[in-house]
Amino acid sequence: MTENNTTSWWSATYPQRYYAYSNTEYLLGGYPTPGYVDVAMFAALPTWLPAASDMIALTEAAWNARSSSVNQIVKDAEVQTYNAPVVVVPLKTQAATAQAWIQQQANLAAAMKAYVSAISAIASGADTTSTALPAQPADVMAASAATTATG
Predict the structure, then answer these.
(1) Backbone φ, ψ for residue 70 (5° rounding)
(2) Tens digits of per-residue pLDDT, 41-92?
């Protein structure tokens, strides 16, 4: 049996086998997403492959964990999880939104009072001219997400 003393094409210019590079075609929160490459899978240097110094070397463990990671970005020369900034709605805006919801609910409450009166009149026999029940008003106490926001 003969011994194979050949070295891989990449071993001189790529000290690691696994790399992440900045994929600027796909951004997340303004940051490039990582592209991943196993340089050993190529028989020769691909023309598109960045230099090792322009990529982030990965351990085998990091390489194996990459597929279970979501929302990954390249920032500060490392692969990181992107955390979207928390949007804080100013209290004044929350109050204005709540005020609009209150007005809507007040209008619906008036509609509900009219509906209750009409149904009561039919049920008691005071209304003998109606031939069908009046339409029910929309959800009177529908919750508004804007009024439950914290900030």
Answers:
(1) -125, 160
(2) 999 999 999 999 999 999 999 999 988 888 999 999 999 999 999 999 999 9
CB atoms within 10 A of CB 138: 11
| Residue 49, CB-side half-sphere exposure with 13 Å CA sphere | 20
pLDDT for 143 equals: 52
Question: Which of 83, 85, 104, 84 is CA-nearest to residue 146?
Answer: 104
Provide long-range contacts, Cβ within 8 A and 24+ apart, for 67-71: 71/28
Instruction: Cite the DSSP H helix spans in the chain.
Output: 60-65, 91-124
Q: Are 57 and 16 in contact (CB under 8 A)?
A: yes
What lies within 8 Å, CB to CB, of 8 at 6+ separation is 40
DSSP state of 85: P
Backbone angles phi, psi at 52, to 5 degrees: -55, -35
Reported as a pLDDT band with limits 50, 70 and 90, residue 107 is confident
Give the span between the Cα atoms of 104 and 5, in whole angstroms.
Answer: 80
CB 37 within 8 A of CB 22: no
Burial class (CB in 10 A: 0-12, 13-18, 19+), 21: buried
